[in-house]
Structures are given as structure tokens and as C-alpha cells.
């Protein structure tokens, strides 16, 4: 008999694909040397944080000996920082936000959990488009909800609003989108977002309760060739943007993120009170002190995007040359090509034979594809060309 909760025993027995690849990669690296393994399995930003991050740390260090420098604070973060963040996000999102419209969280993951805890009753449902970031299902289950995936449109991975309309029921409390998207790199257009907002307005009316629209957007900063990443906040009163500094500042270990509410939301004060409470009672208590000081200094800075752009180009060349079928990512740092032969798990194993690590689409609720994260030096991409070509050629 397990000492753990049944759900946790189940999760452990069914390790995620990313975890399995991580372990397989460890074995290959021990056997062949890390430089002979081409690891595209993890979305862990490898670029150094911009200089403003170290400056923020140094500034804070000068005050670290003062009383309460590391003290408890309001559960939504330092009020002065919320004000600063609101001004920054007002420009970014194209709406007028105040300190009362933004809450600081422990990363986007902490923000998503605080939000779901605040709005979901047990048995209620969150819908997202597949492929999807696999943690969403766990986050919803944390709060007694159920996660439902609706397949994106075939090949383009645009949101399939017809399928979403059919999937929404009276149990649906939240629809979550992620743009720029992990794992496909797709960016949802303004037209698609307006149509989505219209659909949710209608469905909310039909069921007599608002359905929330959550935009999970930690990759907002990474849009290539000047692509626009439209904000949902002006489009729908029950819209919430959740994000973090994990990717744009290469800061995922420091856990700073935020939840921003649509200024059109009639019950803004009520939601913010709920979020402030859930940020506390989930055990986050408040966002990290050091991370907030870093962020105060680094707001508006970001890692060198030209490096990601060059890698995207290199990866496209390598994949094209080897004969893969893929869509160029418009944003984020992933490719999601079709698995040659159709069986994504078999093909990822084929790549492993060539010491190339990828994650099967099955791990994102979308079999038949595989994900490549380009958080690696361009030389790793170029050096993997041979392995990509051999694995492709091995499948008829
Ligand atoms: N959402 C998506 C789509 C992600 O890819 C990630 C991290 O990889 C997160 C949320 C969580 O990010 P954070 O580090 O801000 O919690």
C-alpha cells in the first residue's frame, strides 16, 4: 500500500515524457560525453540574464542588512513594485492598468495556481487547446477541477473555435490559451482572439455565469519577424493575463511572475481579494523578495533575442535539409515537426539512437509530432544535423 495520495502515486508511476527524456539524456551523456549528445528536450533558457538582473541584485545587496529587508510583505507583492509593473504592462498590453489590477506571483505557474484556486469549484472544468503544456492538467487537479483538451486546427495549430464551442458545457469555468505557444510556436491573431472573446461572451450568457479567459504568456517577448502578439485584456472583461520573467530574463529559478486583470472586469476588487488570499494559502505567502528587487531593476530589459532568432533559422535549415515536415514557429523557442512514420514515440526513440533528445507530441496531448527546444548553442543544432538526417532516413 502506498503512503502517498493515490493521485500522486499515479503521477509518479506515469512519469512525464520530459522527465523520461531527461533521464535518458543523463545516461547518454555519461556514456558518450555531454558534447556528443544533442539535447533539445528542455525549455530551460540557457542565455545569460541581461546585465540589469545583476545590477538589481547588487542594489538590493546594499540594503540587505537593514531591518525587514527580507520581511513578510502584502501577499500580492511590494505595492511600489505593483505600481511599476502596472505602468509597464499598460504599455505592453495596450490597456490602462493600476497597481490594483496586478498581483505578483511565484512565476506563471504560481499565478495559474492562485487563479485556479480562486475561481474553480471542485468538479468544474478548464479547457485548453492541444497540444498543451502538460502541467496545466496537474494545476487544475490541484484544485479539484477537471482538464479538458480540444485539438487545435490540423497542421496550422490555430485555435479551433468550432471544436471549442462544442466542448464548452455548463461546467466550463476557464478557457486557457497560450500564445506564443509551447510547443508549436504559434501566435494567435487578433481576429482569432476577437472571435474567441465573442464565443465566450455568448457561452457565458447562455449558462448565466462568466467563463474566464486566461492568457498564459511567458513567451510574449519572443515573437519573430516583428509578429504582433495581441493582448486579450482589452477584448473581454473576464480576461486575465498570467506571465513571468522566467524566459525573457532567463530567470526561471527565481520564481517571479504576475497576474494582470482586464480593467473592464466589473468584479476586479473581488477577484484581486481572492487572488491575494490564494497566493497566501497555497503556501506561496508572497512572491520572493530578491526576485522582486531584480525585476524592479530589469523591467523592460530582456535577453538577446537575436540569438534565439539565429538558432531558429539554423534549426529550420537543419530540419529542411533532412526532409522534415514542419511549420516555422512564429514565436517562443520550440519546433513541433511531424514525426516521420507517424509514431512519435517510436521516432523519438529513433532520434535517441543518434543521441538526439526530443519530446514526443504525446507528452503534449498531440501524438504524431515531436518537440525540439532550441535553448542550446547554435553549434549543437548544427552538430545534430547528421543525427537528424540519419533518423529521418531510417523511417520509410
Ligand atoms: N506556461 C508555459 C506554456 C510554459 O512553457 C511554462 C514553462 O515552461 C510555464 C507556463 C511556467 O513558467 P514559470 O517558470 O513562469 O512558472
UniProtKB/TrEMBL annotation:
GO terms of molecular function: pyridoxal phosphate binding; transaminase activity
Listed cofactors: pyridoxal 5'-phosphate
Sequence ranges assigned to domain Aminotransferase class I/classII large in this UniProt record: 36-386
Enzyme class: transferase
EC number of this enzyme: 2.6.1.-
Pfam families from the UniProt entry: Aminotran_1_2
InterPro entries reported in the protein's UniProt record: Aminotransferase_I/II_large, NHTrfase_class1_PyrdxlP-BS, PyrdxlP-dep_Trfase, PyrdxlP-dep_Trfase_major, PyrdxlP-dep_Trfase_small
Segments traversing the membrane: none
Keywords: Aminotransferase, Transferase
NCBIfam families (alphabetical): PRK06836.1 (NF005305)
Homology family: Belongs to the class-I pyridoxal-phosphate-dependent aminotransferase family.
PANTHER family in alphabetical order: ASPARTATE AMINOTRANSFERASE YHDR-RELATED
The name this protein goes by in its record: Aminotransferase
